[in-house]
Design goal:
- It is a single chain.
- Helices cover 3% and strands 49% of the residues.
- It is built from one helix and 16 strands.
- A six-stranded mixed β-sheet has the order 7-8-16-14-11-12.
- Strand 7 and strand 8 form a beta hairpin.
């Protein structure tokens, strides 16, 4: 299976991906790797890889593209225009669509991670998020009246440093009516 490094404008690898087939056409920012050595945060000089200090803006970012509520809860759901906050009711099923990007461009990653959704009283609800070609859609059922938060710090807490990512955050309030 071909493995690629995705480079930013400075030639630094800010993402890697392994695919069932070769990328065709190959993106301008992709470099086919011939080894299994992680290259995240390293810079390709044209001849070899060199280690550089990572910068926050080089980290992949999770961007929320859309949030919808099931038909039965839609009338009682308010979703912020920037998708940073949702106010809904207990029993609602939220469908959340996100993309992974680097430098404002889609990062076609095929990977899964467990996103910790944490309530204000400390309860943690891990949700598996599976990215295919840089996008993921997952559902969350609001089973109890609670305020839930997801931040970049929460997401990164269970990941190795080379897998850290940026995220603007999400707050969900599920209330009884």
């Amino acid at each position: 299976m071909p493995k690629y490094a995705f480079l930013n404008a400075a030639g630094v690898c800010n993402g890697e991906g392994e695919y069932d087939q070769a990328l065709a056409p190959m993106p301008d920012n992709a470099l086919l790797l011939d080894d299994n050595v992680p290259r995240l945060g390293q810079r390709w000089t044209g001849n070899k890889w060199v280690v550089v200090a990572p910068q926050t803006d080089q980290l992949p970012a999770i961007v929320v593209e859309n949030i919808t509520a099931d038909a039965g809860s839609n009338a009682n759901t308010i979703i912020a225009d920037n998708f940073a906050e949702v106010r809904t009711v207990v029993g609602a099923v939220l469908a959340i669509t996100v993309r992974m990007e680097v430098g404002g461009q889609l990062y076609p990653i095929n990977e899964a991670f467990d996103m910790p959704i944490t309530s204000v009283d400390g309860r943690v609800h891990p949700k598996r998020v599976l990215f295919k070609a840089g996008r993921a859609t997952f559902t969350i059922t609001m089973t109890e009246p609670r305020i839930w938060n997801v931040t970049a710090e929460m997401i990164n807490s269970g990941l190795p440093s080379e897998k850290h990512m940026r995220f603007g955050g999400l707050r969900v309030v599920a209330a009884e009516i």
